[in-house]
Automatic annotation (TrEMBL):
InterPro entries: Retrotrans_gag_dom. Residues 133-193 are annotated as: Disordered. It comes from Aegilops tauschii subsp. strangulata (Goatgrass). It holds the Pfam family Retrotrans_gag. Residues 2-87 form the Retrotransposon gag domain. This is Retrotransposon gag domain-containing protein.
Length: 246
């Protein structure tokens, strides 16, 4: 007698849609064939790999359960699938690649020993391609995200020298020189002086430079200094001779 979903399906059939047991068998199989849980294929076993944070014991248990439920998997294929699925750099994979176990029972014995050993260790050991153990990376202490593995951080650093106003002005002038000149609407660059104010003062004096540049700067020009202080203004010219009488 049909029960559960099969009984519900039977009651939902249209009247006179089944004429014989052969028709009933075909309709029943076609309707419930998708609900049948089929055994895994060998390809599914080849896709079973160890996760990046999965322990050897968890991977061995998961792989063994899948292997026992698969159909048509040869022993040589199972050995190859398990070895390829082990995480790179582990001692177990290095051992299997070196020894090459001939039977699946031998492989499971080796894997069980390494799984027991790994579960008893605080840090998992990893090896490179040559079989040398890789030193574990230093872990950041909990609660200190700014910790760095450098020993020179505790040394006293020399104080930075203070900058004078003249140095600051020089740096600002250099930054202004490096900054590209703004363009006008017509596409031509705006006018830009060839020298800044500070550079013009420190250049050879333009008031006393002829064919050769002056030996003093504009900032140190005594004539310009006197004009700035109001002492260098020339007196008005003397009156001219009187006009002759007509």
């Amino acid at each position: 007698m049909l029960q559960g979903t099969a009984h519900t399906w039977l009651n939902s059939l249209k009247p006179y849609s089944i004429n014989s047991w052969l028709d009933f068998t075909e309709v029943f199989v076609r309707n419930f064939t998708s609900t049948y849980k089929r055994p895994p294929k060998p390809r599914q076993l080849s896709l079973c790999v160890q996760g990046p944070n999965e322990s050897t014991r968890d991977y061995l248990t998961r792989w063994a359960e899948l292997c026992n439920s698969c159909e048509g998997v040869h022993e040589v294929q199972a050995i190859e699938y398990f070895t390829a699925g082990c995480r790179e750099g582990t001692l177990l994979k290095h051992r299997l690649l070196c020894d090459e176990p001939a039977t699946l029972d031998e492989l499971l014995v080796i894997a069980d020993k390494y799984a027991t050993a790994d579960s008893s260790m605080k840090t998992e050991l990893r090896v490179d391609a040559s079989g040398k153990v890789i030193a574990p990376a230093p872990k950041t202490p909990a609660g200190d995200p700014n910790w760095r593995p450098y020993h020179n951080d505790h040394k006293r650093k020399a104080p930075m020298p203070t900058s004078s106003s003249r140095q600051v002005a020089t740096v600002e002038d250099e930054q202004l020189e490096e900054r590209p000149a703004p363009k006008k609407k017509g596409g031509r660059p705006a006018w830009k002086p060839s020298f800044s104010y500070e550079q013009a003062l420190d250049a050879p004096c333009k008031f006393h430079s002829g064919a050769k540049p002056s030996n003093h700067t504009t900032r140190k020009c005594h004539w310009l200094t006197r004009i700035t202080k109001g002492e260098g203004m020339l007196p008005p010219p003397p009156p001219g001779p009187p006009a002759p009488a007509p």
